Amino acid sequence: MTYQLETAQHPETLRRVAIDPVSRVEGHGKVTILLDDQNKVHQVRLHIVEFRGFEKFIQGRPYWEVPVMVQRLCGICPVSHHLAASKALDVIVGAKKLTATAEKMRRLMHYGQMLQSHALHFFHLCSPDLLFGFDSDVTKRNIVGVAMAHPETAKRGVLLRKFGQEVIRVTAGKRVHGTGAIPGGVNKALTVAERDELLKDIYHIVQWSRDAVHLIQKVHTQDPGLYNSFGIFRSNFMSIVGNNGDLDFYHGTLRARDDNGKIIFDHVDYQQYNQYIEEEVRPWSYMKFPFFKSLGKDHGWYKVGPLARVQNCNQISTPFAEHERKEFVDYAGGSPMHAPLAYHWTRMIEMLHAAEVIKELLHDDDLLGSDLVVEGERQMEGVGVIEAPRGTLFHHYQVDENDLITMANLIVSTTNNNQAMNEAIRHVARRYLHGHEVTEGLLNHIEVAIRAFDPCLSCATHALGKMPLEVELVDPEGRIVHSLSRS
Amino acid sequence: MSHTFTLDGKVIPFVDGQTIIQAASAAGVFIPHLCYHPEFKPHGSCKLCTVKVNGRHTASCTMRAAPGMVVESETEEINAERRALTQMLFVEGNHFCPSCEKSGNCQLQATAYHLGMMSPHYDHFFPNRAVDASHPEVLLDFNRCILCSLCVRASRDVDGKNVFGLSGRGIKTHLIVNAKSGQLADTDFTLDDKAAQVCPVGVILKKRRGFAVPIGERKFDKAPISETADTTEGR
Ligand code: SF4
Ligand code: FES
User: Fold this and answer.
1) CATH number, residue B40
2) For chain B, is the Cβ count within 10 Å smaller at the N or the C terminus?
3) In B, which residues are within 8 Å of A68 by CB distance?
4) Distance between CA atoms of A377 and A347, rounded to whole angstroms?
5) CATH number for the domain including B195?
6) Is residue B234 part of a domain?
7) Ligand 2 pocket check: which of B46, B71, B198, B225 to mutate, most ligand atoms within 8 Å of Cβ?
8) What is the pLDDT of residues B43-86, one digit of tens each?
9) Residues 6+ apart with CB under 8 A from B73
10) Is a pLDDT exceeding 80 seen at residue A154?
11) Quick one: which atom of ligand 2 is closest to the CA of B62?
C-alpha cells in the first residue's frame, strides 16, 4: 500500500501522456503519464475535476431546500444525494425513527436507483468491453454494437434501467430530480395503481438480473488470467452494513476490513464518521484523498462500492443474491478478491439483490400507508450516509438556530475511491504502456480500469461512448511529440 | 348600470367603476398579471397586464372599463412584450426553481409557462442578496422578490403594521423590512398576517416546510394559470 509512481523523482526530464477526457466515464477526467527517455512509466495520476463549490453554495440556505438542491450534484445518481441529505436532515429535525411507510418508500426509491444505475453502468458502459474484448474495434465497442451482436442482452439492459427509473418516478415524484424524501419522512406513499404497475414487471426483472449475474460470472471465470489480475492492487475496504451484518444500501453502521478481510472497525455510528476518517488534500488533485485515521495516510486508504460491499457483509437477505454471493466468495477462495474487474460481477449481484428487495417491498402494505412524517427535538448537526451505487456517500451539515446551513461536508463515492482508482491505473500503465506510441489498445486498458469503479464524474450525456478522446505525448518543453485522437 | 366592451372579440359585461382586469376575470377571461390582487388597490407597476385599448397600450389593472372599448390582450405582439418583461424579472433576481418551495405554486413561473418563455434570454444579474432568517416562523428570501408591493400593501392596509416597504428608485428599488435592525424578527410580523399570504413568488415562506406537497401535485401543475380561476388562492 505505497504510492509508487504517484510522484516521479525528476519530472522535468520526462514526457507527459495526457488522456483527456476519458471516454465513456461520465463527465471529465484526465490521466497524465510521465515517461522517461526510455519510455518507462514514471508517474501516473488520475485527475478528476470535481465541483467543490457546492458546499459553499448551500451555506446560508434554509435546510429544507437541501435534499432537492443537492440532486444537481450528479446527473447519474441524484437519488443518492437526495436520500443522503434527507437522512442528515432527519437528524436535524429530531426524527429518530421514521414511520414504516416513510422508511420503506425511501428504501424502494433507493433500490430502484441501484437497479437503474447498475444496469446503466453494466449494459451501456461496460458490456461492450466485456463482450467484445478491450482491444476490439472501437467503432463497434459501444451499446449499438452490443445491440447488433447481442440484441437480447442490449434490450434487457434498456428495460432493466427503465424499470428502475419507473420505481424512482413513483417514489420520488419524477424520474429525475424528484422531491419524495423530505426531512423527517416522505411526501407521498405508493398508490395501489402504481404498485400494481410495478408488480407486472418485477418477476422478469428479477430473472433478468439473475441472468446478468451469470453472464458476467461466465465472462470472468472463462478468462481468470485477465480478470483476476488486471489492474490489481490490495487495499482496505469499507461500507455500511445493516442489521446482523446484512448487505444494506440504505442504512446501517460503518464497517471496515483490511486487505486480508480482518475487521478494522465495526458497528460504527456514522454520526461519528470524522473520528474514523480523515481527508487529505494533495496539491496536484482537486479531489481529496480520504483514509482511516487509525492507519494513517500511507496505509489507511480504502475502496468502496460493490466489490467492497459484497465482501464486507456477512450475508445477503434475499435468496437468489445470497446464492450468488456464496458462489463469488467460493471463487475468491476464502480471502477477499481485489481484482478491479470483479467489481462488475459484484455489481450484478447487487443489482439482483435490489430487484429482489423491490419485489419484497411491493408486497408490503406499509407502502400504501398515510403516516408520512415525524419530527422531534431539533438538533444543530446531522450526518446522513447511504450506500450509493458507486459506494459510500457522506452528507454532513450544521444548521444554525435560524434554520440556515452553516457548514456542509460531502464525501462522495468517487472521492472514497480516489486512491484506489489511481492505484489501478498505475498498475495498468506499468503493465501495458511501453514504447513511444500510444495505441488505442493502451488507452482502452486504462479506461477499462477506471470504468470498473464506475466513477461518478458529473453527467451522463456521453453514455454512448461517442465522447472524443485525445491523447498527447508531450516533451519536457511542452511540445507535442505525438498525438492520437478519435471521436 | 351594466355595459359591455370587447376583449379579443369577446363581449365582456362590466359595471361602472370596474377595471378591465376586474371585468375580464369576473367573466372568466384571464389577463396575465403579477402585481394585481383582487383584494388590493392596484399598483400598476409590473405591466404584465398590459393590453391595447383602441390601439393604445395601457395597464388593464388600472384602466377603468368603458362602454364600447375594443381591447386586445392575447395577441402575439402583446405576449412578446409580456414575455420580455417576464424574462427581465427572471434575470434581475435569483430564481432557482428546482429547489424553490414555491415551485408549482409560483405565479411568476406559471406566467412564464403561459407566455411560452423557453429561456431567460437576457444575461443574469446574479445579485447578491442575503436571506433574512431571523424570524422564528417565516423566512424572507429576497433573491426572488419581483417588487410587486403586495406585501407592502397587505401589511399596511390590512394588517395595519407597515412591516414592509419599497426603497430606492429604478433598478435600485428593493424590498426593506421596517425595523431599525432591518430584520423581520424585530417587527411585530406574524405568520397569520395577511402580508404572509400574498407573495406571488417564493420570498415570504413559512419556515421548515419544504416540499410537503410533491412537485406535480401543486396548483399550477394541475391547471395552467390561464385556467386557474383564483390565481391568488393557496398562497
Ligand atoms: S416580497 Fe413578494 S409580495 Fe413582497 S414585493 Fe416582493 S414579490 Fe411582492
Ligand atoms: S398587474 Fe397590472 S401592472 Fe402589474
Assistant:
1) 3.10.20.740
2) N
3) 98-99, 210-211
4) 39
5) 3.30.70.20
6) no
7) B46
8) 999 999 999 999 899 999 999 999 999 999 999 999 999 999 99
9) B7, B8, B24, B29, B31, B51, B52, B60
10) yes
11) 2
- End position of a domain, from candidates B16, B44, B74: B74
Q: What is the number of domains present in chain B? A: 2
**Residues A58, A62: Cα–Cα separation, whole Å:** 8
Find the ligand nearest to B140 CA.
1
Residues 89-108 of chain B with CB under 8 A from chain A are: 96, 98-101
Find, among A30, A44, A368, the residue nearest to A199 by Cα.
A368
Contacts of B96 in chain A (CB under 8 A): 69
Closest partner CB to B133 (pick from A62, A183, A373):
A62
What is the pTM (predicted TM-score) of this model?
Answer: 0.86
Question: In the sheet that A302-303 helps form, which strands lie side by side, from edge to edge?
Answer: A263-268, A253-257, A236-241, A302-303
**Is B223 within the bounds of a domain?**
yes
- The complex's ipTM works out to 0.81
- Pocket-forming residues, ligand 1, beta carbon under 6 Å: B 145-151, 175, 198-199, 201, 203-204
Closest atom, ligand 2, to C-alpha of B47: 3
Q: How many CA atoms lie within 13 A of B95 on its CB side?
A: 23
Do B173 and B202 fall into the same domain? yes
Say whether B99 and A65 touch across the interface (CB within 8 A): yes
Which long-range contacts (C-beta less than 8 Å, at least 24 apart) are formed by B164-167?
Answer: B164/B195
**What residues of chain B lie within 8 A of the CB of A184, using their CB?**
none
Interchain CB distance below 8 Å, A173 and B215: yes
**Is the domain of B91 the same as that of B174?**
yes
C-alpha cell at B113: 409557462
Atom 3 of ligand 1, residue of closest alpha carbon = B199
Sole residue written with cell 492505484: A423
Q: Looking at CA atoms only, how far is residue B100 from chain A in angstroms? A: 7
Is there a single domain that holds both residue B100 and residue B211?
yes
Closest CA to B137 of B205, B194, B57, B199: B205
Alpha helix (H) residue ranges in chain B = 20-26, 76-92, 107-114, 150-153, 219-222
Which among A467, A122, A59, A80 is positioned nearest to A250, based on CA atoms? A80
Residue B70 shares a structural domain with residue B96: no
In a domain, B7, yes or no: yes
Q: Can you read off the three cell numbers belonging to residue A433?
A: 504502456
β-pair partners for B175: B166
Decide if B99 is inside a domain.
Answer: yes
B105 and B177 inside one domain? yes
Higher-pLDDT residue of A243, A135: A243
Q: Which domains does chain A have, with CATH numbers?
A: 11-50+432-486 (no CATH), 54-419 (1.10.645.10)
Q: Are A232 and A428 in contact (CB under 8 A)?
A: no
- The answer to whether the CB atoms of B98 and A404 lie below 8 A apart is no
Nearest-angstrom CA–CA distance, A88 and A70: 12
User: Which residue in B149, B148, B142, B155 sits closest to B189, CA to CA?
Assistant: B155
Q: Are residues B204 and B124 in the same domain?
A: yes
Answer yes or no: is pLDDT of A22 > 50: no
Collapse the DSSP code of A54 into the 3-class scheme (helix H, G, I; strand E, B; otherwise coil) and give the result: helix
CB B93 within 8 A of CB B144: yes
Q: Do B223 and B192 sit in the same domain of this protein?
A: yes
All three cell numbers of B172: 435600485
Of A182, A403, A404, the CB nearest to B211: A182
Give residue B43 CA to ligand 2 midpoint distance, Å: 7
CA pseudo-torsion sign B110, B111, B116, B118: negative
Note down the domain range covering B30. Answer: 2-74
Write the pLDDT tens digit of every residue in A289-347: 899 999 999 999 999 999 999 999 999 999 999 999 999 999 999 899 999 999 999 99
Say yes or no: B98 and B64 in one domain: no
